[in-house]
Amino acid sequence: MGDGGGSFVMLGLIVLIFYFFMIRPQLKKQKEQKKFREALKTGDKVVTIGGIHGKILEVNDTNVLISCDNGKLRVEKTAISYSEDDQLSKAK
User: How far is CA 50 from the centre of its chain?
Assistant: First the structure.
């Protein structure tokens, strides 16, 4: 009968482990992505989630205009995966 408290403690530990190893890192990554997308500016070289490389010509609230080899594309900010400049500086 006294074993119920031990099960409750184990369940609490599992929830804490799950939070620190899965939920917390995901929230941190989402926060960094939001900060990155808010910091996009004209002239940045970016890559979309579809693999399109281009240079930002114009930034709006929800989308950006990208210059590619054969024209221009307007994509949502959420479709920007990373900045080529950031990747180059991390590689060095």
Answer: 14
**45-48: strand order across its sheet:** 71-76, 63-68, 53-59, 45-48, 80-83
CA 3 – CA 8 distance, rounded (Å)? 9
Q: pLDDT tens, 2-26?
A: 567 788 899 999 999 999 999 999 9
Closest CA to 77 of 31, 46, 53, 51: 46
Residues 6+ positions from 73 with CB-CB distance below 8 Å: 52, 54, 65, 66
54 in helix, strand or coil?
Answer: strand
pTM assigned to the model:
0.70
Give me the sign of the Cα torsion angle 68, 73, 74, 77.
negative
